[in-house]
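tool=predict chain=A
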Amino acid sequence: MRLVKITSAIALVGFTAACATSGANYQPVIDGAVSPNYSNDLAQCQALASQQGAFDSTTGQKAVAGAAVAGGTTAVFNNKGTNARDAALVGAAVGLTAGALDQQKNKEAIIKNCMRQRGYNVVG
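tool=predict ok
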């Protein structure tokens, strides 16, 4: 069972890293007419967003918090051998995933703001 937890945690982190650019590919919903430069404007805004890393600045803190909460809780309530270590690894993976998802939202916000500054009525 322990190997399944560790393998799942590693797969979760790998999946998250593979999705690192998905926020930069975001296409906002525009209300109204778009200019002839829309494709260029969108490409430039997406390039700006893609310059951000895969994780936000608080990812490390989230990983540590996830590891501490999961490992500590397991140690107190179900301490059998290496359960606390395994739970800490899974908690850290969850923290890393949360940081990556937050960074995707940040990239989408960058694209929305960039497009608004270029005169588009971004609604979503």
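The CA atoms of residues 75 and 81 lie 9 Å apart. The two ends are 43 Å apart (CA to CA).
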